Amino acid sequence: MRAFSIALNSIRAFFGIENGDDYKKVCRKIVFVGFKRFMYVILDYWLAGITAAANLFLKAYEVDIVLAFMAMLLLNMTICIVFVMTYEKTGVDLSLGVDLRRAVDKIHTESKTAGYFAILIVSIQAIFWSGPEQIVIFFQKELPGWKRWVALLVLTAIQTVIWMFLWRTGYDVISGG
User: Fold this and answer.
1) How does pLDDT run across 37-55, given as a tens digit for each residue?
2) DSSP state letters, 102-120
């Protein structure tokens, strides 16, 4: 029963639902989060396609691995910075890092162990999949000022290495190289 209560409270926190919200307000909050996620998925997959194409282009034309990494890092940093700056200027976080943080904070207040586990899960999926922008926005309280940008650079470099390896390995397998 406790797990159900924690899950329900974290879902409410994720959507920003507060006690006293009427049905229409709850629906608007859920739809807004859904819309943000929809937009992020479209943008993220479109941008992933661009980065995959750029990576494969650099591999096909045998660009030196260090230069290819620098080019991909610059492209990926640009993408991340646009997401972070959009959030900072508009308050709209398409990556849902803010929403995830509310949910994880709620979990953490009810169970420290589950809260730390949730932080770990969010961090891993953001580093490998969703993107460094999500984790930097998620940890915005812990990463003030320049620390945010250093974290973004380091996390983007890690993600760039992972995806360059995957795309280049796939290219080698398919091309027989």
Assistant:
1) 999 999 999 999 999 999 9
2) HHHHHHHHH-HHHHHHHHH
